[in-house]
Amino acid sequence: MGAEKFFIINILNFMEQYSNLKFAIETGNHFKNGMSLKNLIKRLKKITLLGILLLFISSCEKEEPDNNRQNPIFPLNIGNNWHYEGTYYTGDTTSLQLHVFNSYTIDGITGFALSEYKKGQPISLLKNDEEGNLVEYLFNKEKLVHSTTFFKKNVEKGENWIYKAAVYTNGDYSKYTIEETVMTCITTDTIIKSPKGDFHCIGFSSQAEGKQENGDPHNKMFFYLSENVGIIKIIDYEYYNNNFNFLYEMTLTDYSLK
Question: Domain 3-256 falls in which CATH fold?
């Protein structure tokens, strides 16, 4: 099975599985090399809002949210950017670039978007709450649908919660379903090494509830985040041959925060 078949950046499904960290990704090079959105849709039959984290953020009622929170677990400010290098199980390599360009105000709530906003269509906005958690607000037809916590800062090992990921069901991102994903804290303090240094991180596992159409469990992802820096590492495991097998990992290689 080739790398294309198993290529999934679900984030936040960041970073395509997850909302919308499910985390601004520069997808041009991947698409030109065969990692097209069409192929991803065919592979997954869905695309999450925070999930590819596709941060094509352009301006609409531009107003930067108040993010003066206590050292958030994923800092959100216009101008923040992160660069990741990744390796697939095949040994092939890839890269991921995230940018926060602008923000939107919808239904009285201002936050940062992880996808390009077309008026009236569904979109997720991200904000840091008072405790430094990363919270996602889903809108449809310019009205708030719900808010859901993606990553928690003040969390205990073993604590879990449901993250309600908005999953696109068509190619133009105009329709979606809600996928309930179980988030679990697997460690409150572990050292993750990267080219930018060693970071104290909180670790999370993420897995959609239920089964795939073939009866197999959904992919299991692991995120490691460092306070006031963001995501340091992502590891994805694909279920096949009656076991979870390593698919890819992404590691932070550079970042700039405003």
Answer: YmcC-like fold (2.40.360)
